[in-house]
Amino acid sequence: MHIHILGICGTFMGSLAILARELGHTVTGSDENVYPPMSTQLENAGIELHEGYSREALKPAPDQVVVGNALGRGNPAVEYVLNRNLPYVSGPEWLAREVLGNRWVLAAAGTHGKTTTASMMLWILDQAGFDPGYLIGGVPNDFEHSARLGSSDFFVIEADEYDSAFFDKRSKFIHYRPRTLILNNLEFDHADIFDSIEDIEKQFHHLVRTVPATGLIVRPARDRHLDLALARGCWTPIQTTSVGGESDLSAWRAELMESDGSDFMVIHNNQPVARLRWNLTGHHNVRNALAAIAASKHVGVTPDHAIAALQRFGGVKRRMELLTDVGGIRLYDDFAHHPTAIATTLDGLREQVGDDNVIAVVEPRSNTMRQGFHGDRLLEATQLADRVIWVDYDAQEWLRNMLAQAGPNHSSHSVMEELVMDVCRDLPRPCHIVLMSNGGMGGLREQLVKQLETCFG
């Protein structure tokens, strides 16, 4: 079968392409943003790419068109598909129908931590010899690709609440029908498709409706919006997680041995299981680990084996990924799309480095931030940084208004050269610089690595 994917270079759609190719299909695709690393991964898999959305890429007509959720009416390729009555489907529906089928799906959902938690589950099952299939919305450092079919009944997936397609406004995760479900947290995000937190709670409730009574839901003990979503109805056993003294009633608890989360004891049903010492920091990663351990136990991996696997966990690209360490200056790359994600990352780093100087370079790029939502929370989210430099390529008015209320340790720039100069200005040592964005930052990462290694190497 010939499958053509519209929007193929997005992380989700590119991963679908890899799976379709593994199934033996002829796969081609179109996108406006055809560039590495996804383009390289796809070309290496023998997938032909077309830049732009020309109708010529759909000639001769493919057997099926998979439409990414970034495309809508008015797109020339979409209009051609509709006018020619070509068979089309959303990415999540294709995945559910062609890959997930009768497999045991382990899903990680939530506003934050989906990629990392799913990668932890994947690594635990892989190290236990399960050979799970997977689709992750990022690139786990322990694996070559962001997706594979696997040979077992198990499939690990990052379950996104974003909509499925222009013709299917349900959240992607509604299609996945997990048997083991992690609900990390629930906050307002994606203001381009959701009008309120209640809208998101409803989608999470719809997801909960798909989990069988023989399944399992793992969630933190404290999350008000998850409480509200689950109060709409739940027919599946729930296990809760907690860190420190949050709750003595949780099935899974972490007793911190180090305040930065790099060392903790895992406690299950009030019984110590094993101690986890690893390279990750932050209480959010401790929560992610507890959830992954609980979910893995549901499919038969003992907690001590799960903990042993996590001690070797390599993390995920763009989750506090160290880009360079030169002359006492460490530069990290972090995928930050929400004030809570920014705050928890900086909190974890501060716990780790103590009084060392921390510089946060933040690009408020998500659709929600660009509409001015969360503006009142961003200053608070960055308060643990000694300096905050805002990337403002589009000269956003809401950002200028917010910075008018900020202190002298905040600055913003719309020109790349000015950004690089400001970041590198009067750097104390030791120093930790964190780049925080859910996008490419216009090449700022590469420029900073080059500048730091030139000046301090």
TrEMBL record:
<keyword id="KW-0131">Cell cycle</keyword>
<feature type="domain" description="Mur ligase C-terminal">
    <location>
        <begin position="318"/>
        <end position="435"/>
    </location>
</feature>
<dbReference type="GO" id="GO:0009254">
    <property type="term" value="P:peptidoglycan turnover"/>
</dbReference>
<keyword id="KW-0547">Nucleotide-binding</keyword>
<dbReference type="InterPro" id="IPR036615">
    <property type="entry name" value="Mur_ligase_C_dom_sf"/>
</dbReference>
<dbReference type="InterPro" id="IPR000713">
    <property type="entry name" value="Mur_ligase_N"/>
</dbReference>
<dbReference type="GO" id="GO:0005524">
    <property type="term" value="F:ATP binding"/>
</dbReference>
<comment type="pathway">
    <text>Cell wall biogenesis; peptidoglycan recycling.</text>
</comment>
<dbReference type="GO" id="GO:0009252">
    <property type="term" value="P:peptidoglycan biosynthetic process"/>
</dbReference>
<keyword id="KW-0133">Cell shape</keyword>
<keyword id="KW-0460">Magnesium</keyword>
<dbReference type="Pfam" id="PF02875">
    <property type="entry name" value="Mur_ligase_C"/>
</dbReference>
<dbReference type="GO" id="GO:0051301">
    <property type="term" value="P:cell division"/>
</dbReference>
<dbReference type="InterPro" id="IPR013221">
    <property type="entry name" value="Mur_ligase_cen"/>
</dbReference>
<dbReference type="GO" id="GO:0071555">
    <property type="term" value="P:cell wall organization"/>
</dbReference>
<dbReference type="InterPro" id="IPR004101">
    <property type="entry name" value="Mur_ligase_C"/>
</dbReference>
<keyword id="KW-0961">Cell wall biogenesis/degradation</keyword>
<dbReference type="GO" id="GO:0106418">
    <property type="term" value="F:UDP-N-acetylmuramate-L-alanyl-gamma-D-glutamyl-meso-2,6-diaminoheptanedioate ligase activity"/>
</dbReference>
<dbReference type="Pfam" id="PF01225">
    <property type="entry name" value="Mur_ligase"/>
</dbReference>
<dbReference type="InterPro" id="IPR050061">
    <property type="entry name" value="MurCDEF_pg_biosynth"/>
</dbReference>
<dbReference type="InterPro" id="IPR036565">
    <property type="entry name" value="Mur-like_cat_sf"/>
</dbReference>
<comment type="function">
    <text>Reutilizes the intact tripeptide L-alanyl-gamma-D-glutamyl-meso-diaminopimelate by linking it to UDP-N-acetylmuramate.</text>
</comment>
<protein>
    <recommendedName>
        <fullName>UDP-N-acetylmuramate--L-alanyl-gamma-D-glutamyl-meso-2,6-diaminoheptandioate ligase</fullName>
        <ecNumber>6.3.2.45</ecNumber>
    </recommendedName>
</protein>
<dbReference type="Pfam" id="PF08245">
    <property type="entry name" value="Mur_ligase_M"/>
</dbReference>
<keyword id="KW-0132">Cell division</keyword>
<keyword id="KW-0067">ATP-binding</keyword>
<dbReference type="GO" id="GO:0008360">
    <property type="term" value="P:regulation of cell shape"/>
</dbReference>
<comment type="similarity">
    <text>Belongs to the MurCDEF family. Mpl subfamily.</text>
</comment>
<keyword id="KW-0436">Ligase</keyword>
<feature type="domain" description="Mur ligase N-terminal catalytic">
    <location>
        <begin position="2"/>
        <end position="97"/>
    </location>
</feature>
<feature type="domain" description="Mur ligase central">
    <location>
        <begin position="109"/>
        <end position="295"/>
    </location>
</feature>
<keyword id="KW-0573">Peptidoglycan synthesis</keyword>
<feature type="binding site">
    <location>
        <begin position="110"/>
        <end position="116"/>
    </location>
    <ligand>
        <name>ATP</name>
    </ligand>
</feature>
<dbReference type="InterPro" id="IPR005757">
    <property type="entry name" value="Mpl"/>
</dbReference>
